[in-house]
Amino acid sequence: MGHQPSVAPTITRRFASDLAASELCADLDALSDLPADDLVQLYRDVLTGLLDMHCPAVKVRRRPKKATPWFDADCRAARRCTRAADRRFRRSRRRADKLEWDKRMKSMRSLYADKHNRYWRNEIRVNKGNTRGLWRTLHGALGDSARDDDSPFRADDFAKYFKDKVDSVGASAAATPLCDVPRRVTSSLADSAAVTVDEVAKLISSAPNKTCQLDIAPTWLVKDMIGLLSLFIALLISKSLTTGCFPGEFKEAIVRPLLKRDGLDLTDLKNYTGQFPTCHSFLSYWRGWFNSSSGTPGR
Fold first, then answer.
1. CA-CA distances (angstroms) from residue 229 to 20, 65, 104, 172, 224?
2. Using the 8-state DSSP alphabet, how is residue 28 labeled?
3. Which residue in 108, 194, 258, 295 has its CB near the most CB atoms, within 10 A?
4. Does the pTM exceed 0.90?
5. Looking at residue 295, what DSSP letter applies?
6. Which H/E stretch holds residue 272?
7. How many other CB atoms are found less than 10 A from the CB of residue 211?
8. Beta bridge partners of 259
9. Are 180 and 213 in contact (CB under 8 A)?
10. Of 271, 286, 124, whose CA–CA distance to 204 is shortest?
11. How far apart are CA 13 and CA 153, in angstroms?
């Protein structure tokens, strides 16, 4: 008989096992001398590489949807019941379930039409005599209401406008006499106690499941992997506190300009206000640690 070629065994690779074998979960003593910025870069490189391997990013097409401000809790409940009837019919294929699904579908569409008509009729009645409000209502009913994304300004225009606004406020208060604030000696961050693994696990577990597009990994994934990541995150936070250096990558934020109210002119910068910035989720871990220690480094 001829020689049979050897067949390579099939190995199942999972995210947790690959993460456990990475530098983030290896001997952390070798990483203790790295600055906070290098630790953040290592965190990004490892997690990004694992995410690209296990769940690579894909491009999806987002189709614009018409505004439905009339969609309320009653509509959501009707849609939920209709979908449940649909799933029941697809499982059983019984005529009775088919009739129930048709009944739910007709009732839901009737409710949608009634909510739609009532809402826009009320908007027309409220804006009676207000030409601008009536035009805004008409655009909303047609599904092409103006959005903040339609602003003709660039990010540099908003930055300059808000900077000039802050400078003008400072100039107007320049003549105000300075307030004599007594100085007191406080502990420095270098005197703070090291952040423990238990504290990190508690802070991250209690953090809300919110994810910013700046985050390296989604919050829910960090929570699921907290048993593997808590040691490294504790090292990162402790290094930042003891050296007094906040990682530069976490200083970035996303600020979206919003209209102060609907119907204002999109071409006037005075009609915009800055939304609360969206930041890295890591900021919540730092803030949680300071809140739990009452802001006192030595606790």
1. 9, 39, 48, 49, 10
2. G
3. 108
4. no
5. T
6. strand 272-274
7. 15
8. 272
9. no
10. 286
11. 48
